[in-house]
UniProtKB/TrEMBL annotation:
PANTHER family: AD039 HT014 THIOREDOXIN FAMILY TRP26, PITH DOMAIN-CONTAINING PROTEIN 1. Gene3D superfamilies: PITH domain. Residues 32-207 form the PITH domain. GO terms for cellular component: cytoplasm. It comes from Fagus sylvatica. InterPro entries: Galactose-bd-like_sf, PITH1-like, PITH_dom, PITH_dom_sf. This is PITH domain-containing protein. Belongs to the PITHD1 family.
Length: 214
């Protein structure tokens, strides 16, 4: 597997299941101020934040608070995404303002067993619920580790994460807490130059209108 420059290769545990391929995470060993990680690859500015939503969040709309610039990922404003008590499962839907290619995903969870321990991902599947997520084949999944300092990124199978209009993250379980907490979700990759609504307008304009030829 390819290792991102400036990162060490780590592999998540497959918990003894030979069907689960080990996935790669990378550990930053450089200063992001010097390497400008955020502006290079961050997709934060390409998230359609007004349409982001989560299922089983204890405070409606709180999911929007976990999307922020890379350098602010550990800022403690008190806002975070939290599941309802006694039910650690979360489902987060993230649409983009333009199609993107996703290289990696970073998750900063809560302490005391409240960090998610597993992540499953679906792309371009709007409106799925927990029943759908549990029965559908994810495009990729990871066993997570507690990443309280925000230094880990989970690498995608990049060829499968092209032309992504939306991504849904399924967190089915945590490290034993009564609730699941997420303080930061970071996505890195590349975005197309044209927004999807602009592309749609161009396609519309190129479609012949019979009334124009009367």
């Amino acid at each position: 597997m390819e290792v991102v420059s400036g990162c060490e290769e780590l592999r998540s545990s497959s918990h003894g299941d030979p069907r689960r391929a080990e996935e790669m995470a990378c550990l930053h060993d450089h200063s992001c101020e010097d390497h400008d990680c955020s502006s290079d690859w961050s997709l934060y500015k390409h998230i359609d934040l007004s349409k982001v939503n989560a299922l089983n969040e204890s405070v409606p709309g709180s999911v929007k608070s976990v999307f922020k610039a890379w350098e602010q990922r550990l800022s403690s404003s008190g806002e975070h995404l939290e599941s309802n008590e006694g039910d650690p499962e979360l489902l987060v839907f993230i649409p983009f303002t333009s199609d993107v290619k996703i290289k990696s995903i970073s998750i900063v969870g809560g302490a005391d067993g409240t960090s998610p321990s597993k992540m499953r991902v679906f792309i371009n599947r709007d409106g799925i619920d927990f029943s759908d997520a549990q029965s559908m084949q994810a495009i990729q999944e990871w066993d997570l580790v507690e990443n309280l300092q925000g230094v880990l990124e989970y690498q995608t199978r990049y060829s499968k994460f092209q032309s992504v209009a939306s991504i849904t993250l399924h967190f089915p379980e945590n490290f034993g807490g009564d609730i699941t907490q997420i303080h930061y979700i970071g996505l890195k990759g590349e975005a197309t130059q044209l927004k999807r609504d602009v592309v749609a307008t161009i396609v519309y304009e190129l479609t012949p209108n019979p009334s124009d030829h009367k």
